Amino acid sequence: MIVRGLALAAFAALYLACLLLAPGGSLSSLPGDLALQAPSFTHPLGTDDLGRDLLSAVFQGGMTSLTVASVATILALLLGLAFGLLAGLGSGMVDELSMRLAEVVASLPALLVAVLVAALFGGSTTNLALVLGLTRWPVVARIVRGEVQALLGREFLRAAWALGAGPVHVARRHLLPHLLGPVTAAGAIVFGGAVVAEASLAFIGLGDPAATSWGQMAATGFALAGRAWWVWAAPTAALVLVSALLALAVERNSA
Amino acid sequence: MLAFLLRRAAFGLLVVMAAASLAFLLAWHAPGGPAVGLAGEHGAPGYLEEVAARYGLDLPAWKVWLGWMGRLLRGDLGTSWREGAPVATLIAERLPLTLALTIAASALSVMLGTLIGLAASARERQAWPAALLSALHAVPGYVAAQALVAAFALGLGLLPVQGIADLREPAPGGLALLAEQARHLVLPVTALALHQLCFVALLVRAGLIDQMRQYYVTAALARGMSRGGARWRHALPNALLPLAPLTAARLGGLVGGALVIETAFALPGLGRLAVTSAVARDHPVVIGCVVTAAVAAWLANMLADGVAPFLDPRLRAAWR
């Protein structure tokens, strides 16, 4: 419980730092002799090949990466909740149809689809967030459906039905509060996966060339890693940290 | 049993067609239209329309879609626009490498992951093994690849940085060639396996901890069996049951992971083919790659469904 709380708090702090401390606009370059400076007190994470402060760049990149992941996660949660509730509360036919749809979407090679969209339509952050959200909702839908079916037999729900409550009222008033925990956990998994997927696409070379993101920084930084390891290490560490913190926050086995 | 497998097979076919249709839809609506990949972007006025008409791409989308799906169902993947060669040939050239990569990574992760899960479950009360495995599970494949290359190829110089053969030396023949290729695959397979390995280890650990609390284990302990013996002999077979279907279900993800790893190590596999064809707008090849990935995932799931009753006698009883 302590590990999970700490991990969640650390993730929230990192997210806030990116939102508040990202310089916005283009990063200012420093005079040429300040390029590829090792980490120091003035530049805690060093500078990159254009003499830009890497700490600001990491916050700026985090803005992009975390925004993409947030939009994708919200989309996946909304779709997952809608289909999960529909399947859990609907008749046998509705249940069967929505879960089959979820299975088809879950079986698609998701990263390949993302590559296709990025290659054909351009790897803009909007496209990326849309693709990641639209391919990852079945995980959420399956969890929601399972929870709803487990809740349906409980007495407070039978009482609500008996008092004449409609499905919308039941879903909003009685089911959603119970679903908050599992849905948050599913959201964390989707979020971590989206951060990694964005970085992987940038690594393949299909990311948004105009936006500074962790994946794009790490991809360009690896070429320089022989001379200046920090250019690669700073964005990579941020990326792995977010992904690992989210994994720890929802890990069930660690105390 | 047979009806169940038939239903699964039919559903798999549906998934493959859905994947192909999605790829078709994306290709059709790509900016510039579907024929740009053939005609290029800077042709004379009217050239694009002429090329579209010659290849039957000026018809309504649903007619072209029906034609492509019909050929697909007959096993014809079409011809590459860029290479002029049949798509099936191009894929057949690239598939063995990707198969070797994914199968080796799967095998490695199942075997090593089981052992690590066994070791981690012995420290049941400690949180750090699970936390460490969760954290490692979160490391993206390409980061693992970069770290491995930096350490073992650039740092220690033990293994090659990339590629499948050393072009500076004449290609050896026979067994030496196989050994050379295996040496080139060590780092890619490790990088690809890491994620899946942690997943298997976490799954086995959780399963073992759960099984060790069951009455049959208590009974075995009461008969004087050691904890380690009971874990290995009684708990492990039961804890491993969910592994087959889950490994198969994640094979689709492994194909996506292979795409990243092939890029990282410049390996000429299916994933590389998909990326380069998508960038070049060689739509038949892209659709062929998507179909191949979907078929591979389908076959893996079928295999897992098929072997499940042999692994778990309870399923055999249920189907009889």
3D shape of chain A: elongated
The quaternary structure here is heterodimer
CATH architecture of chain A: Orthogonal Bundle
Helix count, DSSP H or I runs of 4 or more residues of chain B: 15
CA-atom Rg of chain A in angstroms? 21 Å
For the biggest sheet of chain B, the summary is: none
State the largest interface.
A-B, 43 and 52 residues
* Overall pLDDT of chain B: 84
Name the CATH superfamily classification of one domain in chain B: MetI-like
Helical residues, percent of chain A: over 70%
Instruction: Give the low-pLDDT segments of chain A.
Output: none
Order of helices and strands of chain A: HHHHHHHHH
Report the sheet-strand fraction of chain B: under 5%
Reported CATH architecture of one domain in chain B: Orthogonal Bundle
Q: Quote the distance from N terminus to C terminus of chain B.
A: 8 Å
